[in-house]
Amino acid sequence: MLVLVFGALFLAATAPAGAGFDEGVAAYKRGDDAIAYREFLPLAQQGHAEAQNYLGFMYDIGQGVAQDSAEAAKWYRLAADQGHAAARNNLGLMYDIGRGVAQDSAEAVKWYRLAADQKHEGARNNL
User: Fold this and answer.
1) Distance in angstroms (rounded) separating the CA atoms of residues 25 and 11
2) Tell me: the pLDDT tens digits for 91-107?
C-alpha cells in the first residue's frame, strides 16, 4: 500500500531560510498560494531544494497553479538530486504510479530507497 505523505512530512522538513522562503512558507500555510508561488519560484530557480519541493507539490496537486504532473516531477527531481528526502519519496511515487513520468518500478524503488536511507518514514512504507 502506497503511503501518500506529501502534506505533513513535506511541511515538517527543514531547510535553511532564504530570501523570501519564510514568507513563502507562511503564505503557503495560510492558503495564499499566489504569494507562496511568487516567493518559491525564484528560490527554486536558484537551486533551493526545499522551495523546489514545495513547487513540485503545488504542481502535483494543482495548488495555486494549473495541475501539471510533468512540471511537478521536474521540480521534485531537482530537489531529489540535491538529497531532499521528501522530494525523493515524492519522485518515487511519481514513478510508481506513472504520473508525470513513465511508470518505472525500478526507478521508484531507487528513489524510495534513497529517501528511506534518510529515515523518511513514508518512503520506508512505500518500499
Assistant:
1) 9
2) 999 999 999 999 999 99
